[in-house]
Amino acid sequence: MASPFASLPQLVVAGYRPTTFDYDPSPEAEQTTLVTKEQWIEVFRGSIPEFSKRAKAYGTVQGSERLSTQFADTFNADLDSVINGEHATLFDGPPTVLKLCKLRDQRLRELGFADCFLAVKTAENTKALIELPKVLQDIDAITDKTQRIKALVQGAFAGNVFDLGAAASAKMHADGTNGFSATKSKLKKRPWCVDDFDEFLDRWIGSAKNLDYISNGDAANGETTSNTNIIKSPWKKVIVFVDNAGADVVLGMLPFCRELLKGGACVILAANEVPSINDITAKELNEMLPRVAEVDMEGIFKKAMDSDALKVISSGSDLPVIDLTKLSKKLCAEAKGADLIVMEGMGRAVETNLYAKFTCDALNLGMVKHPEVATCLKGTLYDCVCRFRGAEGE
Ligand code: MG
Predict the structure, then answer these.
(1) How far is the CA of 321 from the centre of ligand 1 (A)?
(2) Higher model confidence: residue 178 or residue 46?
(3) Where are the beta strands (DSSP E) in the chain?
(4) CA 275 to chain CA centroid, nearest Å
(5) Which of the four pLDDT bands, split at 50, 70 and 90, describes residue 394?
C-alpha cells in the first residue's frame, strides 16, 4: 500500500533524523552536555502523573480511574524495559524521543484515552481568546520594528509554557503560575541558549525601505489618521508548525502569524491530525479561527481567511513531536513555494528538528521545559531557543 505520508518539499532529506539528542550516548560524549539514557527515561517517567490525572478525569471512558492506573503501570514497565535494553518488542532500534512519545500515546489510546486533555485544551482556549484583544493591541502599539518583532518572538516563548507534557510546566499550570503576561515579563533575558534572533530580525527587516505607512487620511492635507505601520514580509509563503492549544497558539503564534499576514505573506498553520497531549489539532484550530477573527479589531485575520492567505492544514501527525518526512500529502502539496518554515514548541522545534536542514529559511522557536534539554543546550530551565538559518542545501 502506498504511504499516506510525504516529506516536506523544503526538507533536506539526506542525513535527516527526527531526533536532536542522543538518548543512549556513548560514555565518551562531552561531559558538560551529557544526559544519560537513564536520565532521559526518567523524563518520560516524570510525565506519567499528569497523564494519569487527565486520563482518570476523562469522562468518555468507563472505568477511567482503574484504566489510568493501568496506563501508568504499563508505561512504567515499558520504561524499565528500555532502561534494561530490553525494548526490541516495543520498537525497532535505539530509543529516541519520537519512539517514546509514540509509545506513551499508544498506551493511552489502546485503553480508550483518545483525547484526555480535551477539557483543559478547551478551557485554556476560552481563557486565551479573552486575553487576545489586549495582546494584539499591545503588539500593534509598538511602533519600533525591532521591539515589535522581539515582543512577538517573546510571546511565542511565553505561550509555549502551557505544556502539560513536561513535568516542570505541568506543575506551573497546576499551581496557576503560568499566566501569559506574567511569563512574558519573567522570560529569560538574551542571549538565549540558542540565539539567532539578530539574524532573524535582519532577514525580516533587513531591506532598507521596509516600513510603510497605511494612511486612511488625505495625504494632500498632510493628514495621516491611521499610523498602523507594517513590517513588510520578505517571505511570500510561510508554513508554521504549531504546538499547544490555549495561550501557546492563541497568544503566542497567532499574533506572530498576524504580523506576517500584515506584511503580505500567506501563512499555512500546520497542526496535528490526531490529538496528542495538549497540542491543538487542525480541526480545533480551524473551528477556533472565526472566534479569533472576531476579536481582531484591525480585521487582519478575517481578511486573510477570506482571501485564503491564512489556512489551517493537518500535518498528518499524531505525536507531540514531528517527523518532517511523515507529513500529510495535502500539507506537502500546499507547502510548495513556501520560503520560510517555522517550527514551534519544545517537541517540534527543539527535540526533533533543531538541526534539520532546509532549502529555504527556517526558524525554530521554543521554550526549554526539561532540565535535561537545558543541559544539552548549555542553558537553563525555561531558557529560550530561537534558531534561524537560511537555505542549507538542495
Ligand atoms: Mg505540545
Answers:
(1) 8
(2) 46
(3) 5-6, 194-195, 211-213, 229-231, 237-241, 266-271, 310-314, 327-328, 340-344, 361-367, 384-389
(4) 14
(5) low
